[in-house]
Design a protein that fits this description.
Shape: globular
Order of helices and strands: EEEEEEHEHEHEEH
Strand order of the largest sheet: 2-1-5-4-3
Number of helices: 4
Largest sheet: 5 strands, mixed
Number of strands: 10
Oligomer: single chain
Strand content: 25-35%
Structural class: alpha/beta
Length: 183
């Protein structure tokens, strides 16, 4: 029995499989030479499979699994990121403006501006708002992004940092976000 396994990414328009089978979601396996009796299927909430058998005693089994990987970003909320999730989210944002709040747990000004930052995420629904705890675990990413003080806000567009605001300067942050959104 031949078996092809493939996965469909909900945010993608392609299907990936193993070993090397590729098609778009609109493509179908032609079953014109198969009778209705030779097709069986089964599914659960996240996995499905079907088998097709021909009169030549060959069968093809296709198993799929719809699984999402990584963090999800919710519009109108601030999403916590780390060294593993930051760049994938930025890349997935595409042309959208991304604002990153780089903070630490012990920073007083970080705690003061956090509620205002949350309000911005509720106001600007076309912007992705992220926050990164610059702890030991995320030190390499913080260094890569060039952090010197906390809080630091990095504003990204097309996977590149285009603006930076250091300190808990709400008006400066607001102006920088508006400027990047308008470009």
């Amino acid at each position: 029995m031949a078996s092809i396994q493939f996965s469909i990414s909900p945010s993608s328009t392609s299907v990936r499989s193993s070993p090397s089978f590729s098609c778009s979601p609109s493509q179908r396996i032609a079953a014109s030479s198969f009778s209705r009796d030779s097709i069986s299927s089964s599914s659960s909430s996240s996995r499905s499979s079907f088998s097709v058998s021909s009169g030549r005693r060959r069968s093809l089994t296709v198993r799929s699994s719809l699984e999402t990987a990584g963090p999800t970003v919710t519009v109108g909320q601030v999403t916590e990121v780390d060294k593993d999730t930051f760049w994938p989210i930025v890349k997935a944002a595409g042309e959208k403006t991304v604002v990153l709040d780089m903070y630490t747990q012990w920073c007083g000004p970080c705690k003061v501006i956090a509620p205002k930052y949350q309000e911005l995420s509720e106001k600007y629904l076309d912007v992705v708002f992220l926050k990164l705890d610059c702890n030991q675990e995320n030190k390499a990413l913080a260094k890569e992004l060039g952090i010197r003080v906390v809080p630091t806000f990095k504003i990204l567009k097309d996977n590149k940092v285009v603006k930076e605001v250091t300190g808990a300067k709400f008006d400066d942050l607001l102006g920088a976000i508006d400027e990047v959104r308008s470009t």
